[in-house]
Structures are given as structure tokens and as C-alpha cells.
Design a protein that fits this description.
Blueprint (H helix, E strand, L loop, with lengths): L1 H5 L1 H5 L4 H27 L7 H15 L5
Helix pairs in contact: 3-4
Length: 70
């Protein structure tokens, strides 16, 4: 059970647990800021017009386009 929860997935993408944690935290921070930009944009449409979409494009590149091959 421990291995399935903490080790299997990070290893499947070529990371150690701590490497995977660092990447996941960086994604979470980026998504949190993008979400805040969306909220601000909802109230004031002239602000943050492309902020969230730009962040999503960067995350997509990091997660999918530049994925390590094994």
C-alpha cells in the first residue's frame, strides 16, 4: 500500500518522491496564481486577459510536450 501511494507513480514518470513533490508543488502554485487571475478577470474583465491561459500553456509544455521518455 505504501509503495502504491508514495512510490509507484513518481517512479512511473522517472522521478523520486521528493523530485515529484517539488514538481507537483510548482504546478500547484502556478495553478493557484492562474485561478486568482481568473477570479480577478471575472470581476474586472480588462485585467488578466491572457494570464491564466499563458500559464496553462506553460504547464502543458512542461507536463506533456517535454515529458521524459523511458
Amino acid at each position: 500500500m505504501f509503495a502504491r501511494l508514495f512510490v509507484a507513480h513518481p517512479q512511473s514518470v522517472g522521478d523520486s518522491y521528493l523530485e515529484h513533490q517539488r514538481v507537483a508543488f510548482s504546478f500547484a502554485g502556478t495553478l493557484l496564481l492562474a485561478g486568482c487571475a481568473c477570479l480577478l478577470h471575472a470581476f474586472i474583465p480588462g485585467l488578466c486577459e491572457r494570464t491564466a491561459s499563458k500559464r496553462i500553456e506553460v504547464l502543458h509544455s512542461r507536463m506533456v510536450a517535454n515529458r521524459r521518455t523511458h
